[in-house]
Design goal:
Keywords: Membrane, Transmembrane, Transmembrane helix. It comes from Eleusine coracana subsp. coracana. 73% of the residues lie in helices and 3% in strands. The protein is built from five helices and two strands; from the N terminus they run E-E-H-H-H-H-H. Helix 2 packs antiparallel against helix 4.
Length: 149
């Protein structure tokens, strides 16, 4: 098998490897062209927006985790004191696991929903005007009440 040299002076053993290198070079050139159109100010603005959104999501998740901790701790601790089965089978580690699992789930669910809602709102704000009008004009006849927005 003859060894061929690629564009960087390295030896490649297969024509497939040369095709991959050619595609990678074309891709890198395309990325450079696209990145040339992006200004530093717009990147800084997007970064600031992303930081603000993540901060809002973190705060919302922390609030939900605090509420969920209290909401799950009260019945868990009460049941361990009052119910014979819970008293016999749920030790302090199990109680802590129940409470922390609920708090963790609440944090991640609320933070994820907040990030998605903020992303949806910001993508709608940046959309062109012809895409913002989402009302359906239809065939001219009124829609039944359950189809109205």
């Amino acid at each position: 098998m003859a060894l061929a040299k690629d564009g960087n002076g390295r030896q490649s053993q297969s024509p497939r490897h040369r095709v991959c290198l050619g595609a990678r070079v074309r891709w890198a050139h395309t990325v450079k062209i696209k990145m040339a159109n992006v200004s530093r100010a717009s990147l800084d603005q997007k970064l600031a927006l992303a930081k603000r959104c993540s901060r809002e999501a973190t705060l919302a998740g922390a609030k939900a985790a605090a509420v969920a901790t209290v909401a799950s701790a009260i019945p868990t601790l009460a049941s361990v004191r009052m119910l014979p089965w819970a008293k016999a089978n749920i030790n302090p580690t199990g109680q802590a696991l129940i409470i922390s699992t609920v708090a963790g789930m609440a944090y991640f669910i609320v933070a994820d929903k907040k990030i998605l809602s903020l992303a949806r709102r910001h993508s709608f704000e940046e959309a062109p005007e012809h895409l913002k009008n989402t009302s359906f004009q239809g065939a001219g006849r009124p829609h039944p009440a359950f189809f109205r927005p």
